[in-house]
Automatic annotation (TrEMBL):
<dbReference type="GO" id="GO:0022857">
    <property type="term" value="F:transmembrane transporter activity"/>
</dbReference>
<feature type="transmembrane region" description="Helical">
    <location>
        <begin position="404"/>
        <end position="422"/>
    </location>
</feature>
<feature type="transmembrane region" description="Helical">
    <location>
        <begin position="54"/>
        <end position="73"/>
    </location>
</feature>
<keyword id="KW-0812">Transmembrane</keyword>
<feature type="transmembrane region" description="Helical">
    <location>
        <begin position="85"/>
        <end position="103"/>
    </location>
</feature>
<feature type="transmembrane region" description="Helical">
    <location>
        <begin position="230"/>
        <end position="250"/>
    </location>
</feature>
<keyword id="KW-0472">Membrane</keyword>
<feature type="transmembrane region" description="Helical">
    <location>
        <begin position="109"/>
        <end position="131"/>
    </location>
</feature>
<dbReference type="InterPro" id="IPR036259">
    <property type="entry name" value="MFS_trans_sf"/>
</dbReference>
<feature type="transmembrane region" description="Helical">
    <location>
        <begin position="337"/>
        <end position="355"/>
    </location>
</feature>
<feature type="transmembrane region" description="Helical">
    <location>
        <begin position="206"/>
        <end position="224"/>
    </location>
</feature>
<feature type="domain" description="Major facilitator superfamily (MFS) profile">
    <location>
        <begin position="19"/>
        <end position="466"/>
    </location>
</feature>
<dbReference type="Pfam" id="PF07690">
    <property type="entry name" value="MFS_1"/>
</dbReference>
<dbReference type="GO" id="GO:0005886">
    <property type="term" value="C:plasma membrane"/>
</dbReference>
<feature type="transmembrane region" description="Helical">
    <location>
        <begin position="361"/>
        <end position="383"/>
    </location>
</feature>
<feature type="transmembrane region" description="Helical">
    <location>
        <begin position="270"/>
        <end position="293"/>
    </location>
</feature>
<feature type="transmembrane region" description="Helical">
    <location>
        <begin position="173"/>
        <end position="194"/>
    </location>
</feature>
Amino acid sequence: MSTTVSPRAMAAGKASLAALALPSAATLLALMNYTAPMATLTDTAAGLHAGATAQIWLMSSISLGLAAALLAVGSLADDHGRKRLFVIGAVVLAVSSAASALAPNATIFITGRIVQGAASAALLATGLGIIGHSFTGHERARAAGVWGAMLGLGIALGPIASAALADLSDWRLWYWVTLVASVLLAIAAVRALDESRAQHRRGLDLPGLVTMSAGVAALLTAITLGRTGWTRPAVLALFAVAAVLLLAFVTIEWRRREPMLDLGLFRRPLFLLSIVGAMVTGLAVIGVMSYLATVMDLALGLTPFTAALVLAIWSGMSFLAALQARRLPGRLSPRHLLAIGLLLSAVGEVAMAGLSPGSHWWRLVPGLLVAGVGSGLANAMLARLAVESVPADRASMGSGANNTARYIGASLGVAMAVTIATNGVHGHGPDAAKALTHGTSIAMLVSAALALAGAALAALIRDDRARPAARP
């Protein structure tokens, strides 16, 4: 007995495949690019003649563009077309990658990385929005797991790929590869993605967009500069500016009839959990794990490439766990699985505490494995919560809000980890290495405590998925 498939069914199948494959590929590329400088920082700094302060920005500048743009592009995508913003993001990523590859000095490179962050924000927010619009029920859970898995895989592959390309040529080659990949992504999206947008289009919330983006930018700049001195006048002034702008944003959104971010959504426990959970993941997991490669280099004597391979144990397990999350029992809700993920992250961090300069990298493996499973599970559940906790036509906004919290948390987490780990470190040599490993152990324990607090919140919060949207 033969079965024929109608052209309409075949077209629908191809559209569904594209709606999963292209956002997943974009997320993989964005996260690889996000972590790429971890393995080439020394060569990049030397090639750009970057000083100590500039080196902080070489690593952190992309976070500024990401966090400042995520909510804005997510809201714009819902109203003006998710495919359109996705393609624009890919094109801007290509252009900014060229600027980074050709940069003659640190200022141009850092500017290019900030723009890369904004472009990556468009890919991340619209990509998850496309998935949220294209899939429902069990298929949405599976698709969200695949998207979340790309976060872990991108973190694993970025430093490895950039280091390998640097050995092949120099550190600039990675940015040319990113340019080519971005162009191919834009072409594929134009050809294969269907356009989608909210049925009810809201007007452009320009005051909200400006105050939110500028406020987050001021906050991230203050956090980044704070690593060279938290009481410096410029840092304190930036924190004050951020507070004023973000308070203005909240006031504008509360009074606006059709706001960019409906503050009434924060009365929905699962939306609140999606934001707080993402913030805790950035603060308690991504922050300390991002700094771990530097500790392995400075205190354990590993090369940057070897350190990236060791860290790939964590991010690789995150990838596998996120892919397999859909196989877990259906009676376990996303909030329960998020709680388990954060709990496992905390257990893994505790297991990695107690390093000393003589420790072998194998000492980290059990903790990396456990924390990797926890991170993957949390990533998959946060992706689901981002789209399931908001009205169906605001999936990109939900993704933007969720990821804004994640990257603000990550910036705070890196600053916290560096501050705690380097407290008491002076100069170089055995004493400095001993102080660094001791400080890193304290940072691991503090991060574990924060992850446990997040797990407790996720376990105790009530489920409100049956409640109607906060506003029509």
